[in-house]
Amino acid sequence: MVYLLFTYPNCPNCESLKDSLSSRGIEYEELDLTRKESRQRIREFLQVLKRDESGGIILPTLIIKEGEEVKAVLNSREEFEQWWPSKE
Hints:
Blueprint lengths: L1 E6 L4 H12 L5 E4 L3 H7 L18 E6 L2 E6 L2 H7 L5
Parallel strand pairs: 1-2
Antiparallel strand pairs: 1-3, 3-4
């Protein structure tokens, strides 16, 4: 599986999710949304992204892919920890 983590600097929820991934030895690609390349990359997933009530993308956003298929879109350490046991 491929783990793509879209983040923003100084985001405590982003750091928490990164810690959770690292503690399980999961390799992931971090994509900082202050960078143009990351903003272009997230566009691939616009149809599956979760948004808040004002339409903004919820961060962090962890996209889990297997091949070309998106298996999960998670937005917090808690969501990841609920999803992870089903994959062990």
